[in-house]
Structure formats: structure tokens, C-alpha cells
């Protein structure tokens, strides 16, 4: 994969690309505390038939660590990224917090997103039970710990508009849930899928990190969805 960067509203966003230009565009958004390398296996599978962009969200990987973090800011970053690279009609894939950013992007500018895949997305409903702020791990991190503090607060008390705005998504959508071993309430994920007008719902019983824990099953669901 080729490593590049782009400046969006004063924030440097790093991203990895693979696949030939002119192919169907796929943009990958990682989970909290991860970076674009978390998608390596998926990128390898997609690259022969897709132009793939794996983005480091603000505060993660090689992207800027400005100290200001929220899902809304990440949404604006991704929209700015799509505008800067002139990516229309992309297939947007997000995991966990990256999934939340993905549905916010798809609701804000529906024409930018052709297909939407939400793998265990953080649902836009109050966390049940409420999440405590975890202690910072020792040692060097590949992300800014302040992101965790900001996003944990938003997960506990999300903006009610996020739930309402799901109905504005026009992209054909696939919601992939991890089943009972996930720490996300599965009924909330199913409710999220029901809220999006053209969405299907699939459970792969491997827990929260579906694409990493069982990439074969994840890709078996993903590839036909992207191409049909």
C-alpha cells in the first residue's frame, strides 16, 4: 500500500491506498484506538477489483493530534477528505467508532456514499450500561488518549439528531453485527439497521472485531454486497 496525506481544514490526514485508479472506490474507517493498518487483510482482498483508501482518523496513526475530538469533527474530516480527493459515489466501510463516523457522513451528504457497510457500529443511542472512563494504558500509544475521553462521553450521551438522521441515508447499507459476544447491545444495532431505509442486517457470531477475528466470513458477506 502507498502512504499519502492530505490537509483538510488545517488537519493533516494520512491514508493508505491500494488498487488501480478508476476502479470502484472503497474508503475504510477504523475503530477507536486503531489505525488504517487494522484493515490490511481486507485491503488485500479488495485491491484487485477496487481502489481502496484506508484513512487514519484524527488523533490516530499518522494523522494530526489537535486535541479537539468528537464524532462531528471526524465526520467533517472524512467529508473534507472525500471532497479533496474528489471521491463521489464511494463505498464507505466503518468499524465501531469508524462505523458511527461512516453513518454520520452518509446522512450528511448522501450523494457521496454509494454503498455503506457498518461493522459493529457504535449506535447513536445512550450506552447501556453507561461507560466508565478507562485508565490510560502504560507506554507509547499509536493514538492520542484524549480521543478516548472525548468519544466515551459522546457514547454515553449521543446527540439525539444522529438517530433521527439515519433516515436520510440513501446508500444501500449492510449492518454486520458480532452477536452475543460483542459488548454492543445487539438490539440497538438491529434498530439502527431498521432505521436506515435500504439496509440489511447480518450477524456473524464472533464478537466485536468481526473483520479481524474471522476475516473469511466478513469478506464472504462484504464482497458480494459491494459488487451486486
What report would you give on this structure?
- This protein is α/β, with parallel strands linked by helices and 228 residues long.
- 34% of the residues lie in helices and 22% in strands.
- It has eight helices and eight strands; from the N terminus they run βββαβαβαβααβαβαα.
- It has helices spanning 40-46, 71-84, 97-108, 145-156, 160-165, 186-195, 210-213, 215-227; strands spanning 2-8, 11-18, 24-29, 50-55, 90-95, 113-119, 172-177, 199-203.
- It has an eight-stranded mixed sheet, with helices on both faces.
- Helix 2 crosses helix 3 (97-108).
- It is globular and about 45 Å long.
- The model has no long low-confidence stretch (mean pLDDT 96).
- Give average pLDDT, whole number: 96
State the low-pLDDT regions, or none. Answer: none
**Secondary structure: number of strands:** 8
Spatial order of the strands in the main sheet? 1-2-4-3-5-6-7-8
Strand content: 15-25%
Radius of gyration: 16 Å
The helix content is 25-40%
Number of helical segments? 8
How many strands, what sense, and barrel or not for the largest sheet?
A: 8 strands, mixed
Could you give the distance between the termini?
Answer: 26 Å
What is the element layout, followed by pairings?
Elements: E1 2-8, E2 11-18, E3 24-29, H1 40-46, E4 50-55, H2 71-84, E5 90-95, H3 97-108, E6 113-119, H4 145-156, H5 160-165, E7 172-177, H6 186-195, E8 199-203, H7 210-213, H8 215-227
Parallel strand pairs: 3-4, 3-5, 5-6, 6-7, 7-8
Antiparallel strand pairs: 1-2, 2-4
Amino acid at each position: 500500500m502507498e502512504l499519502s496525506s492530505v490537509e483538510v481544514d488545517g488537519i493533516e490526514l494520512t491514508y493508505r491506498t491500494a488498487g488501480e485508479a478508476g476502479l470502484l472506490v472503497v474508503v475504510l474507517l477504523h475503530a477507536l484506538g486503531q489505525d488504517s493498518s487494522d484493515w490490511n487483510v481486507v485491503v488485500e482482498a479488495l485491491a484487485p477489483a477496487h481502489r481502496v483508501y484506508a484513512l487514519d482518523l484524527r488523533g490516530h496513526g499518522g494523522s494530526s493530534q489537535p486535541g479537539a475530538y468528537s464524532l462531528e469533527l471526524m465526520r467533517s474530516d472524512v467529508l473534507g477528505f472525500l471532497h479533496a480527493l474528489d471521491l463521489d459515489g464511494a463505498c464507505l466501510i466503518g468499524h465501531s467508532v469508524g462505523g458511527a463516523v461512516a453513518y454520520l457522513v452518509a446522512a450528511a451528504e448522501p450523494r457521496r456514499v454509494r454503498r455503506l457497510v457498518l461493522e459493529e457500529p457504535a449506535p447513536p443511542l445512550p450506552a447501556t450500561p453507561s461507560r466508565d472512563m478507562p485508565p490510560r494504558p502504560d507506554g507509547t500509544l499509536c493514538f492520542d488518549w484524549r480521543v478516548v475521553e472525548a468519544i466515551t462521553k459522546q457514547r454515553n450521551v449521543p446527540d439525539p439528531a444522529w438517530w433521527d438522521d439515519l433516515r436520510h441515508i440513501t446508500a444501500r447499507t449492510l449492518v454486520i453485527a458480532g452477536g452475543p459476544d460483542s459488548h454492543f447491545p445487539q438490539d440497538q444495532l438491529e434498530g439502527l439497521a431498521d432505521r436506515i431505509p435500504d439496509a440489511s442486517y447480518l450477524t456473524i457470531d464472533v464478537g466485536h472485531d468481526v473483520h479481524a477475528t474471522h476475516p473469511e466470513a466478513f469478506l464472504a458477506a462484504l464482497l458480494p454486497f459491494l459488487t451486486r
